[in-house]
């Protein structure tokens, strides 16, 4: 009878039918010594394209498969499950990038929810170039919630000053005939982000208030077929356009460009003295200036506030 030691060796060594030539531990050691040492995968992303940075920020992410993550809800009282995808990449300077990630709420079945009131989460992931690769150095899973119908709205990037880039978000919403567009501006820097401006830039009630468009267009109230009399709260049609206007003569934070919003349209306006309500032609401009923390009005007015 072979020893128990030999029987153990036979059971472990596949294909060894007899004999006891090598202990299992010895065989494992020999195999380990013979196999070349596996080299560790290099840290970081090979390039700064959106998909490659995304895969570095979320292990296992691919464009072909929904990827769920937990982020703070819009109210900040719970965690929401969202499906993430790259939105855009901000170039902050030669060695820093900021990946903007959109997250549409999961419908409970691993698919994006697209209901009327479905807002989208925007998250930020910062990268720094080290030894030719892009290493994640910053994470803010929820910067803001924006948009509707599972769409995040219009995102744009523009250089500010001192290595900062503005991320602007235009969020349009329509419901029950009322439409509005809000502008949110965030300043992105290496490993940081802050909200610096928020303004309503467009609003219309012409589809919600019968006769409003005709009355604003000059029809007498008696002919405008308005069941309810016009007021500043129920009759307006104002659109705005915005841009940054540089201040090249300044330095430091003072060199950040002004934020300029131009408004056109018409709205019901009430005379402060007589109380009479008449249509008002809107032709206004609002100028906001960075004070080192946020953008504040320095001239003009916003007719929607």
Q: What would you say this structure looks like, in words?
A:
There is one protein chain. By secondary structure, this protein is mostly beta strands. Helices cover 11% and strands 46% of the residues. It has an 8-stranded antiparallel β-sheet. The radius of gyration is 30 Å and the shape is flat.
What topology emerges from the helices and strands here?
Elements: H1 4-12, H2 24-34, H3 50-57, E1 68-72, E2 79-93, E3 96-105, E4 120-130, E5 133-146, E6 154-159, E7 165-175, E8 178-189, E9 192-204, H4 212-216, E10 236-245, E11 258-270, E12 277-290, E13 295-300
Antiparallel strand pairs: 1-2, 2-3, 3-4, 4-5, 6-7, 7-8, 8-9, 9-10, 10-11, 11-12, 12-13
């Amino acid at each position: 009878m072979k020893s128990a030691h030999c029987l153990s060796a036979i059971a472990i060594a596949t294909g060894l039918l007899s004999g006891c030539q090598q202990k299992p531990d010895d065989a494992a050691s020999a195999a380990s010594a013979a196999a070349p040492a596996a080299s560790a995968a290099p840290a970081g992303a090979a390039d700064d394209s959106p998909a490659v940075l995304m895969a570095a920020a979320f292990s296992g992410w691919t464009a072909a498969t929904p990827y769920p993550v937990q982020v703070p809800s819009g109210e900040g009282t719970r965690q929401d499950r969202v499906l993430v995808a790259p939105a855009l990449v901000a170039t902050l300077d030669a060695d820093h990038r900021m990946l903007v990630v959109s997250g549409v709420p999961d419908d409970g079945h691993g698919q994006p929810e697209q209901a009327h009131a479905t807002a989208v989460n925007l998250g930020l992931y910062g990268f720094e170039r080290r030894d030719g690769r892009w290493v994640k150095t910053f994470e803010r899973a929820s910067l803001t919630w924006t948009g509707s119908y599972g769409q995040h709205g219009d995102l744009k990037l523009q250089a500010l000053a001192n290595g900062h880039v503005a991320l602007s978000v235009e969020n349009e919403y329509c419901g029950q005939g009322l439409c509005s567009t809000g502008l949110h501006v965030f300043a992105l820097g290496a490993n940081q982000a802050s909200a610096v401006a928020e303004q309503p830039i467009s609003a219309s009630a012409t589809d919600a208030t019968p006769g409003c468009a005709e009355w604003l267009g000059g029809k007498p109230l008696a002919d405008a077929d308005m069941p309810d009399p016009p007021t500043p709260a129920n009759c307006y049609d104002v659109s705005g356009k915005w841009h940054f206007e540089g201040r090249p003569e300044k330095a430091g934070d003072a060199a950040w460009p002004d934020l300029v919003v131009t408004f056109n349209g018409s709205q019901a306006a009430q005379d402060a003295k007589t109380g009479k309500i008449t249509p008002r032609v809107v032709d206004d401009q609002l100028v906001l200036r960075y004070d080192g923390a946020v953008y504040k009005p320095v001239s003009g007015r916003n007719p929607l506030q």
